[in-house]
Each structure stands twice: as C-alpha cells, then as structure tokens.
Amino acid sequence: MKKISFVLVFTLIMSMFTSVAVSALTFTPNTEVYSEAAYLVNLDTNTVIYEKNPDKVMYPASLTKIMTAIIAIENIDDLSGTQIEAPSYIFDELYQTGASTADFRPREVATAEELLYGLMLQSACEAGSILADYVGGSVEGFVEMMNNKAAELGCENTHFVNAHGLHNPEQYTTAKDMAKIMEYAISLPEFKKIASTYSYEIAANNKHTEPRNIYHTNKMLLRTSDYYYEPIGASKTGTTDEAGRCLASTASFGGYNYLLVTLGGPMKDADGNNLQSAFLDAKSLYEWAFTYFRETTILQVTEELGEVAVKYSAGSDHILVHPEHGFEMFWPTSIETSVIEKKVNLPKEIEAPVKTGDKIGTLELRCSGETLAEINLVASQGVEKSSLAYNLDLIKKFFSSIWFKVTIGVILVLVGGYIALVIIVNNNKKKRRRMKHSSRPMNRPRPPRS
Description:
This protein is α+β, with helices and mostly antiparallel strands. The protein folds into three domains: 31-294, DD-peptidase/beta-lactamase superfamily (Beta-lactamase, 3-Layer(aba) Sandwich); 300-385, Sandwich (Peptidoglycan synthesis regulatory factor (PBP3), Domain 2); 395-422. It contains ten helices and 17 strands. α1 (64-75) runs antiparallel to α3, α1 (64-75) runs parallel beside α6 (175-185) and α4 (125-136) crosses α5.
C-alpha cells in the first residue's frame, strides 16, 4: 500500500473538543476500540489516520477469503459462464468442523460467480475450497498462489495454509498486511461488487431444485439491523474462537473514502453478553474519521518563507524563497494548523547566477516531535551574475589569501637575504682590500744627495 512520506502516529488525548498543548498532540478516537488490532487509512490520500498494534501477528479467520476471492477472480476469465463441479473430498475435510456454509453439496455444479458470492456473503468455507481445487489444481497449489500474492503485495507477516480461514496456528496476518490485501481486492471491480452486496440468489441446479438466497454476514449492510451503517461498502467478516471478531471493510461519506481492518475483537462483554465488537469498532472509527478529519491546506505554494543574500549579483543583493509545492494533509477540525512548526533551513548566502525555481533550502513541517513533511524551498526570482563584482572579489580574495601573504613573506625573506648577502660580500671585499694594503713593505727614506 502506497503511503505518503509521513504517518500520523500521535493521538488526541481524551476528547477532540479539549484544548491541548502542542507537545501533547495525539490523534486517537474519542471512543473505546475493542479490537486488539486496527488499521484505518484514508483511501483518497493513502493517509493512515489510526492504528493499534498494526504489526501484531494475529489470526485472520474468514478474512482469509478475501485473498481466496482475489486469486479466483484473477484466474477465471468468465465468472458467470464457468461451471465448476464440487469435488467430494472438500466436504470430508470440513465435516463436523462447524464451518460456515452456503449449502453447496458434493458434485453440485455452480458457476464461479455463485461460488464467489457464497464465499464473500455467507462466508461459505466449502466455496473457498471448491474454488481453490479448481483454480490451483489442488488446495495446496492454490495456497501457494495465495502466499505468492501476499508477498507480491508487500505483506511481511502473512501466511496461509488453507483457502477458507478455519483456524490453523500456521495461518496468520496483521492488520496492516490485511489492509494491503483488502485495498488490492477492492481495485478489482468484480470483488468490490460482490463484497458490497447484502443478498444474492443462487440458481437451481443439479443438487437444488429451487433457487436459494444467501445473505452477507456483515449486518452493517442490513437496513433493519441495529448495526446498520449507511456509508459501509465492500466488507468481509471473520470469526473464530481463536481469532475473535474480525472485519475488513470500506466506507464512503461526504466525498471521503476509508478502509478499516480490525482483528481480535472480543466475543463477549464484561457481563458475558454477546458483543459484536467488530461492528461497533467499525462504526465508531468511521464516524470519528468522517466527523473530525478534513483534507486541510497546511502550506501554500505562494507563501514567502525567508530571504537569502546573493553574492556577485548584477541586481538585487538578496532573493525571496517559497515552497516548491503546497502541502495538504488530513487534520482534525478541532485543532488549529498553527500548532505545526515550520522549520526553515536556508544558507546565509549563495552565489549568482540564480534561476527562478532553483532549490535554495528546505522546509520541515513538524508537530509534537514528528516530521510531517520536508519540502524544497526555491527561488522566487532569478538574479544575473556580475562579472565585475566577481573579478573584484577574486582580486580581493587573492590579496587577502594566506597564499598571497606567504608569497610576500617569502619574497621579503629572499630580498632581505639578498641584501644581507650583498652587504656581507661587500664587507668581505673591503676587508680583503684593507688586508692587502696593510701587507705591502714600507718605503724607506732615500739618502740625501751629496
């Protein structure tokens, strides 16, 4: 499942109506979530709105049938025209297991479409095994296809051993993985249509002389049910003693679309009464999301977020910067977006030339220590380069550089050395001349003439 670069991992304490400090911001439902694990994602933006134990390995129960339906739909070209005869061994495996059924019988001939409706609506375990045997050549071959598909969808903690979802300790998944599977499933038009239907009529055939109706196990689709919820769409329930109550579903309202997976819901309340925890969790989480979250503009592309000095500019000596693009996210309606910190990262100075739209720095949007997004900051206008300013700066840099100073020092040393050498040489010459002069014989006085 594709996700944008941030995930909302904070929760709203107590009530969404309570004013809270920035450091305490979290986003959590304002009602109890019974299920052991849950994963709620907005499908319009691929934003995770809420998660609870999303990676905890749990049993999928009949949510397994979502993957069974995917493999069958993708491998049977003509669902309504393909006739499949139910092999007898399928029923031997399910005998006295308490498996849910749509009353398909040994050697009954039904269409692939009818089997899929039985699988998804009435959670018929025999329909899952019949489809598995037909598509995979054997249940084992089909299960291998299921596991390969799970890996293809990026499921890291999911493993199947059967096509119907009856408990097996080696069959497991997570809320996050099952959300990936469900999101892929609803991309298949046939799946979405079948999983959104409450009732369906299976035609008479070689084992049933009269048509028979089957009904969806999700009572949130039934208008007369206490659990009816109009926004609900495609869904699949799952229940075993080991897995608890499970539900994968979608819901749409007011232009917003969500997908929710809940696993491990309790079967009974504290008093031992029957508790439809999966339905209660789904309704409360969807209503919370529809009521309190809106796609909100956090940052506009026209917003000026700083200025930077420009060296060697032929015009302005600074430029303004703005975001490379705007930014929107799902945000609770009860909290002002001003609590989001805008951390601007810009250099003190840049060199010309600069073109409009050049990346200058970055902007980090943060809240409660979490990075929501990082966006490039770009130049709002271009600046040409001044060759004169550049060359003058080069000259200035040269004369102030350490190498220039070292060179001048070396030259001065050499000149000084040369002068000293000349002085020494001249002094030596003078000394030699004096010594030569002093070593000559003194002239004796001539005798007087007679």
